[in-house]
Amino acid sequence: MNPTVKYEITKRLLTANGQPLSGQQLADDFGLSRTAIWKHIKELEEEGYEIETIKKKGYVLSSSPDSLQAAKINQYLTTKRFGHTIHYEVSCPSTQPIAHQMAQSGAPDGSIVVCEEQTAGKGRMARVWTSTQGKGIWMSVIIRPEIPPTKAPQFTLVAAVAVTRAIEDIADVRAEIKWPNDLLINGKKCTGILTELQADMDRVHAIILGIGVNVNQQVTDFPEEIQSIATSIQMVTGKTVDRAELVARILHHLEIYTDLYVMHGFEPLKILWESYSCTLGKRIKAIMIHQQIEGLALGITSEGILQVKTDDGQIHGIYSADIEI
Ligand code: BTN
Fold this sequence. Notes:
By secondary structure, the chain is an alpha+beta fold.
């Protein structure tokens, strides 16, 4: 089966708004026989698409499976570049190495890798990221901004704002950002972002932005040890979210904010990040590999570095840490 034809048929079915698609028309458009088109339709049915065949009219889609296949995301895309190349896997160890590989082979700005399940999802600081099958968004985005590597940490904050805005748009719930880029709802983590780089001394070749969003999990979908600190959008709102629509919305904001950042620098994004932050103005503990700093989170610098004032009046710049509030 030709995957491009199957993708195009799926896209047409998803965007036909209940209008029948003529088998003959599809056959003519793709230069195939009607039997070949019918085989593609059967294959889609096996994947969970419910397709009615109306005599003399054609195929009508009655329902589609909850999946992150390219055609499902594509129907919601509003972007110029982001999400125009989609690599989809049902199951993989992690989307990050696949995205690294694609970036090295020249994948364009805004290409994504997305999957239903990760069997070895990676978190920050070499932690494990639980990625339950079909319940969340496990995605890596390849971004190629023309910036020096020193500016890359700011990008993590840009991504956090984009995902927060997307969750607000789609699920009507406001997440808060815990520095640098954990998204919390009601104090529990619903999104994590992992930023990895391909760069030389003075130029970023690609940022591989790993985004994990807990979308439709129930509490028992999380391992027991994180059940008290993790949450999902569904657990908070009681509503199931169309993950493909949320992916498209994340890409929408990510493209806008990436362009804003490249054109005007971090300053406008810093203001947005601060408006969603739940870290600033609080007493926090910053846990680093070799030390801990406790004090008042004053703000972030124009480089995205967290400033903490300890009780002796000293101000410390925190570049990377786990934050306890
Ligand atoms: C964190 O520790 O908070 C960051 C979690 C990042 C998880 C995402 S899921 C998609 C991508 N692939 C991975 O293996 N990790 C990131």
